[in-house]
Amino acid sequence: MVISSLFRVSVIQPHYSAEYGSNVTMGCRFPTENSLNMAQLNIFWQQKLSDEVKEVYKLINGHEDLSGQHQHFQGRVTLLYEELKRGYSMLHITHLRITDAGCYHCVVNYREADHKYIDLEIEAPYKRINIQERKEEEDHILTCQAEGYPLADVLWFYENRINDTIFANTTHKLTDTGLFNITSVLRIKPTAPGNYSCIFQNKEWRQTSAHRTVFLIGKKNNALIIWKFNPGRNGKARVPTIKMTEDKMCCVNS
């Protein structure tokens, strides 16, 4: 392939970001003069990785040629033919996978040739957070689990505030689809009831959260309840208020 200094290919945008499972359309522009002769048009799209080059799509003399297409892209890639006459090579990829991320090489050969590179980033937000609660002896165990990409940190909040004294056991594993499966386990003592939230936060500071209100009841203490009947000013009995202390419950007249 001979690169011409007169025939110039340009990118519509150098970087694309898309969500796992969605679709993306990337493109580059090329000069067509007044009309396009499809029989002279050749287009090549490749994914360039550090250790491998995958053929994504190929158009030879105006005709689609999928004979050398990498199996990773089979059934998921099309070229938007209606855009060719306008001088656009638009590559459409469906059902995006984590492994679709990387550098893409757009080559256009139309009497002369030129090429450009485009970067594609794939992200899978931690949208579905599963939160479970179980009891283990006197403690309550909260578990937050979610899948996403890239790898995220799990932060635990108590009463909507981050608490440095909360220590959870967080682990992760890589799934067959390239997502990170993250599990964070928090042990709550009976003396710490309240509203607990787990937040999955990735390196771009994007985050999703789930929360669970846990009302824990500790051991019942020996309670001393004293009821006193004191007539009020109007001769009616006052209704005593109940006040809880650490070691007993007592009756206090208001």
Shape: elongated
Q: Which ranges are low-confidence, i.e. pLDDT below 50, for 5 or more consecutive residues?
A: 215-254
Radius of gyration using CA atoms only: 32 Å
Q: Secondary-structure element sequence? A: EEEEEEEEEEEEEEEEEEEE
CATH level 3 topology of the largest domain: Immunoglobulin-like
Do you know the CATH architecture of the largest domain? Sandwich
CATH class of the largest domain: Mainly Beta
Short description:
The chain has 254 residues and is mostly beta strands. The chain has strands at residues 10-11, 15-19, 24-29, 41-48, 53-60, 63-64, 77-79, 88-93, 102-110, 112-123, 130-136, 139-148, 153-158, 161-162, 169-174, 180-188, 194-201, 207-214, 241-244, 249-252.
Characterise this structure.
With 254 residues, the chain is mostly beta strands. It has 2 domains: 10-123, Sandwich (Immunoglobulin-like); 129-216, Immunoglobulins (Immunoglobulin-like, Sandwich), CATH 2.60.40.10. Helix content is 0%, strand content 49%. It has no helices and 20 strands. The strands form 5 sheets. It has a 6-stranded mixed β-sheet, with no helix packed on it. A hairpin with a 5-residue loop joins β15 (169-174) and β16 (180-188). Residues 215-254 have low confidence and may be disordered.
